[in-house]
Design a protein that fits this description.
The chain is α+β, with helices and mostly antiparallel strands and about 500 residues long. It is about 35% helix and about 25% strand. The chain is globular. It binds flavin-adenine dinucleotide and 2-acetamido-2-deoxy-beta-D-glucopyranose (7 copies). This is FAD-binding domain-containing protein.
């Protein structure tokens, strides 16, 4: 049932009836009467479009209705109605790219899909790009580049700004400028009370820090005011190597990740991809030089590794790299699950982690061969911490940590078809993380940090920030959401309480 404003205007009684129609979920009927054409029911094409916008099949749950607010005021109204119907679970969706089922959508409840709030505004000269919370990274880059500016957003265009930023945000310019969350100058947030507030260095500064890593625990962000940087070209892209190149590639990556070879202009990751049907391992590097005039710089060892099957290193604006990368992601939606862990780099650990993974993955996949599984092991650099004296984030690194120079985080991923394989592959994922962490502990390189944006639902990224940090986050949650709406009624996400 999609009630247009004109329809409601002429037939107000229909809405009133709907409100008391017990076969109709009450919250949705009330939302429809309060927010008119912003509420979509399963028969509406817009409802279907919202569901198909989730990139991974397991995320395509079916709420009783979807709300697409077009202003912070709409979000405030929706939160009021939902709390009045406090048995209705609800979810908040930014770009929809978190792979954990239920984090950004809900069966039977209500999903607030932010995608109509994706405007990007740039006032001349104040150095800030104001990005609606439903914007994708591509929207932000495209708008900023028109003014010869850029922002710290996702490295694939389809990634939502909201989840990316509130979880941390590893970006192209991270080696130079740090986490994307540290480049937020102001969050506009709707609290459970319905109040629309700013959180920045001078106003609600505790909430400002909490939103940098604490994600959906405090309110619904409706706008991100991001620091603007000068636009730049990147030289880089994807190199796919022959299977025999794995050892050399991981050696080159290890050298690149030692403190003395730290190069502030190089971003990206290396992945070993395993296709079970083809029984084939392919090493892949996806890396960029952010000052093309200095290329290849610290990338040289990686670009020299051979044999290469394809090499797509080119110089182009950021928005072109991110747009091309999106095409590869969107092409074939499948089920995707992931988990993460972090460690300090020493000369052998990357090879040892790889050997461990390579030894276990074929067996895990064989049990679920019907689901055509693929697996990935990705090593990525971590951003630097904000400078001493700068506004803090909540990620829990200490002031002596230099994660950008000597740490990596892992992403372990399975991609497959068919829900029957989910449980088993999740067990495999959990087991892989356990054995890798045993290894990194034995080698004395373990670090507790779990990057929230790549953490599995069974991991505890907020706890990984450390006891003190988690305590602070809990206090902020209690202060700004005393009834615990975001802890209890919002069904998905990593919880504090
Ligand atoms: C193809 C791909 C590429 C990626 N590239 C990168 C990368 O380069 N760097 C990186 O760091 N990470 C990357 N990621 C991980 C990415 O940061 C996370 O998947 C992130 O959750 C995506 O944000 P989203 O808005 O799309 O997600 P969603 O799934 O929509 O949101 C994630 C969580 O945030 C909450 N949330 C969403 N909107 C709001 C809001 N307005 N207010 C409060 N809470 C909200 C949701 O409830 C949900 O729990 C990538 C992921 C994918 C799939
Ligand atoms: C109540 O809602 C259901 C489902 O939309 C509909 O089929 C039914 O006709 C409604 N009943 C009344 C009395 O409006
Ligand atoms: C929405 O999707 C469902 C299931 O995929 C389909 O049966 C229905 O026809 C679609 N409706 C519209 C309006 O596209
Ligand atoms: C829902 O609201 C009712 C009435 O205000 C209250 O008694 C009840 O405790 C609330 N339930 C939850 C789960 O918050
Ligand atoms: C864009 O900014 C860069 C760096 O500040 C500058 O060198 C360049 O001339 C600018 N280009 C345009 C078209 O304004
Ligand atoms: C911080 O919030 C206050 C209060 O809403 C607002 O007046 C101020 O402009 C905000 N600062 C920034 C940098 O947005
Ligand atoms: C895996 O290999 C099979 C067989 O060669 C191929 O059909 C399939 O597309 C590959 N899968 C992926 C995800 O690349
Ligand atoms: C993007 O794709 C187009 C078309 O395939 C290609 O010409 C261009 O070089 C690519 N750019 C980047 C940055 O990969």
């Amino acid at each position: 049932m999609r009630l247009s404003r004109a329809f409601i205007g002429s037939l107000t009684t229909v809405v009133v009836t709907a409100q008391y129609n017990t076969t109709q979920p009450t919250a949705c009927a009330e939302l429809a009467s309060a927010l008119f054409e912003r509420v979509f029911f399963p028969e509406a094409p817009t409802y279907n479009a919202s569901i198909s916008s989730y990139p991974f099949i397991q995320l395509r749950l079916h709420p009783n209705c979807i709300v697409r607010p077009s202003s912070a005021k709409d979000v405030s109204v929706a939160l009021g109605v939902l709390q009045h119907n406090n048995r209705t679970r609800f979810a908040v969706k930014g770009g929809g790219h978190n792979a954990n089922a239920g984090f950004n959508n809900v069966d039977n409840g209500v999903t607030i899909d932010m995608q109509s709030l994706k405007g990007v505004e740039i006032a001349r000269g104040d150095g800030v790009v104001r990005v609606g919370a439903g914007a994708l990274s591509q929207d932000a880059y495209d708008a900023a580049e028109k003014r010869n500016l850029t922002v710290l957003a996702g490295r694939i265009g389809v990634v939502g700004v909201a989840g990316f930023v509130t979880g941390g945000g590893v970006n192209f310019l991270s080696p130079q400028y740090g986490w994307a969350c540290d480049a937020v100058v102001n969050f506009e947030v709707v609290l459970a009370s319905g109040d629309i507030v700013n959180a920045n260095a001078t106003s609600n500064s505790d909430l400002y820090a909490a939103l940098k890593g604490g994600q959906n625990n405090f309110g619904i962000v409706t706008r991100f005011d991001l620091k603007a940087y000068p636009a730049t070209n990147l030289w880089g892209g994807r190199i796919v190597y022959a299977p025999t190149a794995a050892t050399d590639l991981l050696t080159a990556f290890t050298k690149f990740k030692t403190p003395k070879s730290f190069d502030p202009y190089i971003a990206g990751w290396v992945t070993i991809r395993y296709n079970h049907s083809a029984a084939l391992y392919n090493p892949v590097a996806i890396m960029w030089h952010t000052k093309p005039e200095l290329k290849p710089g610290g990338l040289e060892e990686i670009t020299e590794v051979k044999p290469q099957i394809t090499n797509g290193m080119v110089e182009a604006p950021i928005s072109e790299h991110t747009r091309n990368a999106s095409r590869q992601v969107v092409a074939t939606p499948r089920r995707t699950i992931w988990a993460t862990t972090s460690f300090h780099v020493n000369p052998t650990i990357v090879h040892k982690v790889h050997a461990l993974w390579k030894g276990l993955v074929p067996e895990i996949c064989e049990t679920y061969a019907d689901a055509s599984p693929s697996a990935e092991l990705t090593f990525q650099a971590l951003p630097s911490q904000p400078k001493t004296g700068a506004a803090p984030n909540s990620l829990g690194f200490s002031s002596t940590d230099t994660p950008e120079k000597d740490m990596v985080f892992l992403q372990i991923v399975f991609t497959f078809d068919g829900s029957e394989a989910t449980e088993g592959l999740e067990r495999g994922l959990k087991n892989l993380i356990e054995v890798v962490e045993e290894l990194t502990q034995d080698e004395g390189v373990y670090h507790p940090y779990k990057y929230l944006n790549f953490a599995a639902w069974f991991q505890d990224p907020l706890g990984s920030y450390g006891k003190d940090q988690k305590k602070k986050l809990k206090e902020v949650a209690r202060k700004y959401d005393p009834k615990g709406v975001f802890q209890k009624q919002v069904s998905g996400g990593f919880k504090l309480l």
